[in-house]
Amino acid sequence: MNALVFALAVWWTSNTIAHHAIHRPLFRRRSANQLIAAIVSVLIGIPQALWRDRHLAHHAGVAPRLRLSGDSLLQILLVVALWTILLDRAPMLFATVYVPGYLGGLLLCAVHGHYEHAGGTISHYGRLYNLLLFNDGYHVEHHANPGLPWSRLPERRDPDARASAWPAPLRWIERAADVASAFRRTFALEALEHVVLRSRVLQRFVLRAHERALRDLITLLPPVRRVVIVGGGLFPRTALILRSLVPDAHITIVDSSGANLDRARMWISGVSFIHAHYPVSEVSEVSEASEVSDTSDTDLVVIPLCFEGDREAIYGHPPAPAVIVHDWIWRKRAVSRVVSVALLKRVNLVTGV
Questions:
Q1: Could you tell me if 211 and 218 are in contact, meaning their C-beta atoms sit under 8 angstroms apart?
Q2: Which helix (DSSP H) or strand (DSSP E) does residue 306 occupy?
Q3: Range 215-239 average pLDDT
Q4: Terminal CA-CA length for the chain
């Protein structure tokens, strides 16, 4: 427990007091700032002059360079002196509390820094986190205004900033959840689909549930002439339903699995098939219609629950005038209909230009 407390202290101090002192000196007198830097260096075991050079290089977008100065040498000596005293006077404390806590704090700082910039600078606007960490979550705003006092960062909140619901030290949970969700969509859902294929009763139930929801959404659309169904090969329920709801529309199924397309051909005829990932860039196989590789003039695109692409991008920038997205029941977007509570599923209709 003591090691954990020390790790949190190293991480918290590095990302609050030490961080702000780098950008805005705490005192007007240089000697006072040097004293504070020396004290912080001893308390968390990180020479602040070296930390300052590294952090400012990060803001400048250049590789950090080790630059020894009078301040950095003094701070290094102070840290080494503390370690020497602990080894001599309290070796067990040093080995079981200080070292694990120190390394844990450095690891937390590394994770924190990585996820603040993974794929681009990211902000987090949670009130409690920003209260406890002096608006550290306003990271996009901090990079745009590095000299601005921490208390004024909310005034510069960027409406276009990339934001996460998770603070940086815990953002790995978000990534882990994305991976787990992708696993569920790819493997668990496919396993359930194979169960449905073995039961006529389940097939009728699934078709009825989806038909009710899709019918409600289709009635809201202008005449549909061309439909692209993504990943609808294994059990082509959507194609079977839409062939009835929009009998005059040309339906194309795009699936990255050739085996799934072969199964779909046994279920339905009069539609076109594309063996490719969506959006279609390279087509490895096209059958029944040579012109279907061009999906740019599609009126309606249907995205499955097991879609492996960027679902948020589909919602934000619909690839067709109308897009129906199969999603979990708790993810209601735009115009929405519940497919089935038992299936934990709904369909969302989004429209674009």
A1: no
A2: none
A3: 84
A4: 57
CB atoms within 10 A of CB 74: 16
Q: What is the pLDDT of residue 1?
A: 76
Of 40 and 278, which is predicted with more confidence?
40
Cβ-contact 347, 229 below 8 angstroms: no
Measured distance CA(107)–CA(1) in Å, rounded: 17
Cα(239)–Cα(142) distance, integer angstroms: 50
* Among 259, 136, 237, 260, CA closest to 251: 237
Tell me the whole-structure pTM to 2 decimals: 0.55
User: In sequence order, which residues have a C-beta less than 8 Å from that of residue 52 and are 6 or more positions away?
Assistant: 22
Task: Please check whether residue 134 is in contact with residue 20, taking contact to mean a CB–CB distance below 8 angstroms.
Answer: yes
Whole-angstrom distance, CA of residue 138 vs CA of residue 143: 9
CB 13 within 8 A of CB 136: no
- Per the listing, tokens 């995205």 go with 303
Work out the percent of the chain whose per-residue pLDDT is above 90.
Answer: 48
Look at the chain and count its residues: 353
Determine the Cα–Cα distance for residues 43 and 228; give it in Å rounded to an integer.
Answer: 62
- pLDDT recorded at residue 293: 41
Residue 104, pLDDT above cutoff 50: yes
